[in-house]
Amino acid sequence: MSEHPPLIVPRRFCGPPSSGNGGWTAGALAALVDHDCPDNRADAWPAITVALRQPPPLDTPMSVGDQATERGLETVAGFGGAIVARARLADGDPALVEPVPVEEARAAMASYPGLVSHPFPTCVVCGTAREEGDGLRIFPGRVADQDGATRIAAVWTPHPSTSEDYHAYVDELPRASLAATWAALDCIGGWAGDLTERLMVLAGMTARVDALPVVGEEHVVVGLARGRDGRKTYTASTLYDSDGRVVSCAEHVWVAVDPAAFA
User: Fold this and answer.
1) 48 in helix, strand or coil?
2) 166-173 long-range CB contacts below 8 Å, 24 or more apart?
3) What is the DSSP pairing of strand 149-156 with strand 62-69?
4) pLDDT over threshold 70, residue 4
5) Are the CB atoms for 127 and 138 separated by under 8 Å?
């Protein structure tokens, strides 16, 4: 098994107070997956699937290595003898959620359910207790349904603090990191699946990144409910730039959990 440098989720990037945000963790691991950049783009990634097996620890080095499996090469993060997450090239691209105009997405944020009741108010992505520049503050609200399914939307302007200098870019524009891009696609899925009805955590996510989002540019992120099966909830999300172009897209699998486990 080949080794990578340890993966650390800084406390800033928590989801629940004591564990890493699922999207940020998945994106940070996805950055280590070996792949050929489409069209020789150094700021784009093909679809990558990440399965989360344990709550990601905060401020703690996780070992990372590549393993050959029946499904192909996987990049695996572990801690204390347990697998935390596994990442691999996906079998296909995520489905797109239809776009929403910027003005409509901005207006929808006023109806964000998390403003009334939030299971994880300190979440770096959607937490209401996080200040601008510290959290992403993506607060989605209901918009028109897509093919009869619940659709929600929010605006997001990446802050300079989401940028990281280890990425190579195709231009001189500052851009958010891959981990921050995956994070932006994450929680909106949970709210589309209705976090107000039952507590869920991210169990799996497949994302394709066509370009890292430009810092300081207003984007629209849209989420869609895609059904349930027992404890599992399925959702999708798409991030659009200010010109309405797809920046990245994702599909999620959420699993219902006992609220007492996160008390």
Assistant:
1) strand
2) 167/42, 167/43, 167/212, 168/42, 168/43, 169/42, 169/43, 169/212, 170/41, 170/42, 170/43, 170/211, 173/214, 173/215
3) unpaired
4) yes
5) no
| Domain total of the chain | 1
Q: What is the dihedral of CA 259, 51, 114, 120, to 10 degrees?
A: 50
**DSSP single-letter state for residue 262:** G
Distance in Å from the first CA to the final CA of the chain: 38
C-alpha to C-alpha distance for 91 and 164, rounded to whole angstroms:
28
pLDDT digits (tens, 9 = 90+) for 60-88: 999 999 999 888 889 999 999 999 999 99
**Helix, strand, or coil here: 45?**
strand
Q: What is the domain extent for residue 171?
A: 2-262
Cite the DSSP H helix spans in the chain: 22-30, 102-108, 178-192
User: With the C-alpha atoms ordered 69, 75, 80, 82, is the resulting torsion angle positive or negative?
Assistant: negative
The dihedral formed by the CA atoms of 86, 87, 93 and 95, expressed in degrees to the nearest 10: 40
Q: What pLDDT does residue 262 have?
A: 65
**Tens digit of each residue's pLDDT (9 = 90 or more) over 136-155:** 999 999 999 999 999 999 99
Domain of residue 33, CATH code: 3.10.129.10
Query: Token digits for 111?
Result: 């109806």
